[in-house]
Structure prediction request, 118 residues.
Amino acid sequence: MSLKIYHNPRCSKSRNTLEIIRNAGLEPKIVRYLDEAPSAAEILDLAGKLGGSVADLLRRGESEFKNAPDLPDLDDDAALAAWVAAHPKVLERPIVVDTASGKAVMGRPPENVHQLLS
Prediction:
């Protein structure tokens, strides 16, 4: 099994999700998405793997989202993915992807990652 986690080490949910993965004996590829923002294509891919839209990946409480003068239509996945790529702070976290199966889960709550581990 090969896992990738879109991780923010300052986030307790992200740290807890990473801990669950490591306690299962796995070391995922860690993408510190604030330092290395995913591309618009990656964001579209993540939304698809999670079975939702790009709008479902937004942290709507972030000031960067609430005060965004350039926020595209939330129903336009392509435009929104490009916007999120330029504003990675609004990306929900953590997102864990099983790169072998193409399945993904949102680590909210962190225990969701068990869906990939079983």
